Amino acid sequence: MLEVKGLTKKFGGLTALNDVNMSVADGAIHGLIGPNGSGKTTLINVISGFCAPTSGSITMAGREISSLTPYAISRLGMVRTFQNINIFPEMTVLQNSLMGNFMHEQPNLGSVIVGSKGYRAQVKRSMELAEEMLNFVGLAEVRNKQAGTMPYGRQRKLEIARALMTRPKLLVLDEPVAGMNEQESDAVADLLLKLQAKRNITIILIEHDMRFVMKLCSLITVLSAGKVIAAGISTEIQNNAEVISVYLGTGRKKHARN
Ligand SMILES: Nc1ncnc2c1ncn2[C@@H]1O[C@H](COP(=O)(O)OP(=O)(O)OP(=O)(O)O)[C@@H](O)[C@H]1O
């Protein structure tokens, strides 16, 4: 699904990503872990087009995407969420999920003003899709609730429902269970497993909660100071001496400077 090769990102004198390689298989849940400041968010910012790489290549389903805008990348089927929950708190659950579709399809202004047949058909399709996605994530019964009044776990599920409105092939999640209790995080984990099984969506996730990562991810890439220090299945990662050393803080290196 996604191949990252020789990816480097410099911010002035700081090398945030240093010759990173990562291969994400079709249908996988791929974990991206590493200590604070190791480059995880920068990597997904570059992958999703929010930040241009200094050098290297990124291909999605065989197509080079490293110079595309986030919008163009989302049209190809990649959608991402951010560390902070990013919903419209005053709007209802249903209105929030519809936003996913309107942002993606961008209806023609003229047809909206005159309420053309094509536009009405598009609205009907969007409503049906929103109902389907809210059902899928388990929020259909609270469709008319004000989104900002719901607990964290449900708000995150709503973000995922909104992301699903664009029918993505690849979902990139930045700390999807940050700030959640165990019960909420288990509910999100179950939802991601269901997404993988029933919708065949590939998922890349950054997460500090190791229990969550080990439970979900078939493969894990570990970053430290902008470099990949390990990649493998959960048992390999848990037993990798360099990973253990980095997490215990003894092997922490300074970022390379050019
Ligand atoms: N826009 C930017 N300008 C300058 N430096 C940046 C920028 N974005 C990130 N960095 C630096 O790049 C390095 C990697 O940061 P990044 O946020 O990618 O790490 P992270 O692994 O996601 O950390 P965390 O787990 O704390 O979110 C850090 O030293 C950070 O200060």
Automatic annotation (TrEMBL):
One of its GO terms (molecular function) is ATP binding. Keywords: ATP-binding, Nucleotide-binding, Transport. It holds the Pfam family BCA_ABC_TP_C. This is ABC transporter ATP-binding protein. Residues 2-250 form the ABC transporter domain. Transmembrane segments: none annotated. The keyword ATP-binding applies. CDD domains: ABC_Mj1267_LivG_branched (cd03219). One of its GO terms (cellular component) is plasma membrane.
